[in-house]
Structures are given as C-alpha cells and as structure tokens.
Amino acid sequence: MPCLQCENNLWKFGETGRCQYESKSQCDEANADYYAEETYNDYPQSATNNAKRAIKYKEENGSDCGTSVGWTRAGQLARRERLSRSTIARMASFKRHQQHKDVPYDEGCGGIMWDAWGGTSGVEWAIRKLEQIDNIMESKIKNDIDHDYHFHFTQEMMEELHGNGELVVLVEEDDKEMVVKFTYGNEEVETEDYEIGDDEIMDLAKELKDINNKYKKNS
Fold first, then answer.
1. N or C: which end of the chain has fewer CB within 10 A?
2. What is the CA radius of gyration of the chain?
3. In this structure, what DSSP letter does residue 15 have?
4. Spatial distance between the Cα atoms of 202 and 198, rounded to a whole number of angstroms
5. Cβ 39 vs Cβ 84: under 8 Å
6. What is the mean pLDDT of residues 113-141?
C-alpha cells in the first residue's frame, strides 16, 4: 500500500514519503490525485456473471440482504463499468466474508452478497489488482524523486547535438542561470565544472540567451 504507518504512528505516502499524516484516511485523501487518473474494468467475465446472477435472484425473489453499497457494486460489475482504486480496495476487503460464500441464496445472505461483490473470481482479482496498482504508484513516487532535474530535448536540439557533436544550452531556474554543454560521439570528452556566478560563465550565458529562447519556442 502506498500509505504506510511509521514507527511514531503517523502515516507516510510511499516508502520514501515523510511521516506527516495522522491517519491512513488522511494520507489517502491528501494523495488522491495519484489514484484519480486510472480506472479499470479488466476483471474476469465470471465476476460479471456472478453479479448478474445475484441481481437476477433479487429481482425475481426479493432480498433484504446487503447494503446499497453492495448492490451498487453488483450493478457496476454487471454493466462492466470501470472501477476506481478505492472501489477495488473495497472489493478486496470483502475477502473477510469468504467463509459465508457457500450459503444458498434462499437460506441466508452470505452467498448472494458474495456474488454481488463479484464472487471468488472478482474478489481475488481485486486483491491482485490492488497490489499491482499500488506497486505502480510506489514506482511512480520513487521515479519522481530519483532525479533532481528534468531536461527535455526538442527535435531541433537533438539534430544539432548529433550534427555538430555538441550543444550548449542556458538553463534558467529559480532566478539562477547555468550553462550546460552536451556532447555526443564515441570519443571521451573532458569536462569542466563551473560555478554559477563566474564572470566568464555569466558573459557566455548572456550570449546564449537568444539560443535558449529559440529552443523554448520550439519546446
């Protein structure tokens, strides 16, 4: 799970997150954007069939079993709607009711509600899917912090780098300027490190402003 409990009983988002949330729900809510983009409907057809069977029995025979949430879930599965991570998490947590799955529809609520939530195939899919989603999210978090700066090459810049063997670009960020020289080829090239503020570098930076602006327009 991306939201993990820390030793001080606070919660953090991901292994590398900061322990700053007082509860898991607060952590989940604060990081909802990581889940909002994707929905999924690759659950097995048998989960859809299980939900349809439960709905059909209720329509034909009536049933006081379950809650509106459970029957809403059955309707989603029956229509093969796309499910959010939070919905999949609820399906996965329904695993706790598995011991009642074999109760006949006409003898209790265990069997019909188990099928309403997708049955064994649906719940097991949800458990696997939730783990897959969270692994992807965890990887995304790590990738977001594994580098300090992202530089995007335009096609024109790549052509100049490949054609001339080098490319000099002025990078501006947070009111600071830095000249970066990229080289390309089979031979090793000795490089020098410059500190921002050196007179020579700042003079060169001024000369490169026009080049930098040209690339920005094509980015």
1. C
2. 28
3. T
4. 6
5. yes
6. 90
